[in-house]
Design brief:
Elements lengths: L1 E4 L5 H20 L4 H13 L2 E7 L2 E10 L3 E9 L8 H16 L2 E6 L4 H9 L3 E5 L4 E5 L3 E5 L2 E5 L1
Parallel strand pairs: 4-5
Antiparallel strand pairs: 1-2, 2-3, 3-4, 5-7, 6-7, 8-9
Helix pairs in contact: 1-2
């Protein structure tokens, strides 16, 4: 999997993938899909975060959006086309993100729709812990393992 910065020419593809992956959950939670609002929101999320296209075998298979600050990495969106899910792409992506976070000693936070049980299970398997749950989102957090030494004894802590 390759990650490359998104550009203006990618916007329609980002929205197409956004609609494919998220529309069912949005309809279940909010009772409908407002195309104009979703386009504006997708554009806002793209402009307020780092957006990268996920490429596999020269095909755009998804995108990731995140805000990387000195104290955390906040994943805004991860979307993989349905026919590319279950092929290890998400696992590789989060392995890279966790490696970045571990190296800096910062947390990774994200939100998942309560209706998206597959994604919730995926993040839990990757070590994310649920921090809060509401009607529209479940918040999850991954905390890096920190090596500690106390009185000559060493170990790990989260």
């Amino acid at each position: 999997m390759e990650r490359r910065p998104a550009n203006a020419a990618d916007y329609e593809t980002i929205f197409e993938i956004h609609a494919e992956v998220f529309s069912r959950h949005i309809e279940l939670i909010w009772g409908g899909w407002d195309e104009a609002w979703q386009r504006r929101n997708s554009w806002r999320e793209s402009s307020e975060s780092t957006t990268e296209m996920l490429v596999e075998d020269e095909a755009i298979v998804g995108f990731v959006q995140y805000v990387d600050s000195p104290t955390s990495i906040e994943v805004v969106n991860v979307a993989l086309r349905r026919d590319w899910q279950g092929r290890g792409i998400g696992t590789r992506l989060f392995s890279e993100l966790k490696e970045q976070a571990q190296g800096r000693g910062v947390d990774i936070s994200l939100r998942v729709f309560p209706t998206n049980e597959g994604a919730y299970g995926f993040y839990r398997r990757l070590g994310f812990q649920e921090t809060s749950r509401g009607p529209t989102a479940i918040e999850l957090l991954w905390t890096p393992v920190v090596e500690v030494e106390f009185m000559g004894l060493s170990g790990t802590s989260t």
